[in-house]
Write a structure and sequence with these properties.
By secondary structure, this protein is an alpha/beta fold. Helix content is 45%, strand content 13%. It has a single domain (8-256), classed as Rossmann fold. α1 crosses α6, α3 (67-81) runs parallel beside α4 and α4 packs parallel to α5.
Length: 282
C-alpha cells in the first residue's frame, strides 16, 4: 500500500510507547493521525506535540474494552475525515509475571479484554468501512509471546492473548482475501521495547484490581532481560515499511526468530510423533 498525504490512520494506545512511535512515523509521511488512548493526560500531551509538527492530529479517550466507544470513534472519524486507511490495533497491557496457577481471574479478565477483545472491537468498528472502500491496511499488535514462549515463563495469560492475536490476524487476512484482497493485514510481534507497558497498572480498572507481588514470582524471569532491546522509534519505522511492502509479520528483534523457529520445529516434531503410526506429516 502506498502511503501518501491525505490518508488517515487510527492508532489505539497511541499516546505512548510503540503506539506513539507509529503515530509519529505515519505523521512524518503526511498522514492525518487519530490517537486513541485510555490515559487522558498523556493523550492530550501527545496530540499537542504531534499537531505542533504541522500534522493533522485528533485525539479520543477510548477504552478498547468497550465496543461502543470504538464504534463511536469510527463514526467520528468518518464524519471528520471521510475515510480510514490504516488501522493500528495496538493498545495492550501486561501484569506481573507469575506461574499460571497463581494468575488471578482479574488478571485474565483484564488481559483478555484489552489485548484480545480490544483488537476484535477495533476490527468490528473500522474494517467494514475499509471493506466498502476496497482499500487499506490493518496492523494488530501481538508480541514475540505470540510466536514463542517468553524466556523464563511466568505470564501465561499474556502469552495466551498474544497467540490469539496472531491467530485472529491470520484468519482476518484470509477473510479479507475473499472479499477485499487489496486490504493488507500485518501482525506486529515485538520483543523488548522501551515503553510504559510494564507500568500498565496505572490504568487498571478499579473493578479488576488484584494484589501485585513485590517482585516477579517467575523463577526465570530475569532471562527476559538478556534479549536485545530496540527503541519504539525503530518499531514505528518497521511498521510503516510493513504497510508499504504488504508484510504479513513484523519481528522487531533478531533474537526472536531463532526462538520462534525452535518452537515451530519442536511443534512439528511432537505432531509427527502424535500421528497414528508415527508418520511424518511433512
Amino acid at each position: 500500500m502506498k502511503l501518501e498525504a491525505g490518508q488517515v490512520t487510527v492508532v489505539t494506545g497511541g499516546a505512548s510507547g510503540i503506539g506513539r512511535a507509529m503515530v509519529d512515523a505515519f505523521a512524518a509521511r503526511g498522514l492525518a493521525v487519530v490517537l486513541a488512548d485510555v490515559e487522558q493526560g498523556a493523550l492530550d500531551a501527545a496530540v499537542a506535540e504531534v499537531a505542533a509538527t504541522g500534522a493533522r492530529a485528533m485525539g479520543a479517550r477510548i477504552d478498547v474494552r468497550r465496543p461502543e466507544e470504538l464504534e463511536a470513534l469510527a463514526a467520528t472519524v468518518q464524519a471528520e475525515f471521510g475515510r480510514v486507511d490504516v488501522l493500528c490495533n495496538n493498545a495492550g497491557v501486561v501484569t506481573p509475571r507469575a506461574p499460571a496457577w497463581l494468575q488471578s481471574h482479574a488478571d485474565w479478565t483484564w488481559l483478555v479484554d484489552v489485548n484480545l477483545h480490544g483488537v476484535a472491537n477495533g476490527i468490528r468498528a473500522f474494517v467494514p468501512a475499509m471493506v466498502a472502500a476496497g482499500r487499506g491496511h490493518i496492523v494488530n499488535t501481538s508480541s514475540m509471546a505470540g510466536l514463542t514462549t517468553i524466556p523464563g515463563g511466568g505470564n501465561a495469560a499474556y502469552s495466551a492473548t498474544k497467540h490469539a492475536v496472531v491467530g485472529l490476524s491470520e484468519t482476518l487476512r484470509l477473510d479479507l482475501s475473499l472479499v477485499a484482497p487489496d486490504i493488507g493485514v500485518t501482525v506486529l510481534c515485538p520483543g523488548p521495547v522501551a515503553s510504559r507497558i510494564h507500568d500498565a497498572a496505572r490504568n487498571r480498572p478499579a473493578d479488576l484490581a488484584a494484589p501485585e507481588p513485590a517482585e516477579s514470582l517467575a523463577p526465570g524471569a530475569q532471562s527476559w532481560m538478556t534479549l536485545t532491546r530496540v527503541s519504539a522509534e525503530e518499531v514505528g519505522a518497521q511498521v510503516v515499511t510493513a504497510v508499504e511492502e504488504g508484510l504479513e509479520y513484523v519481528v522487531t528483534h533478531p533474537d526472536v526468530l531463532p526462538l520462534a523457529r525452535g518452537r515451530a520445529e519442536h511443534l512439528l516434531e511432537e505432531l509427527s510423533d502424535a500421528v497414528p503410526g508415527g508418520t511424518d506429516p511433512r
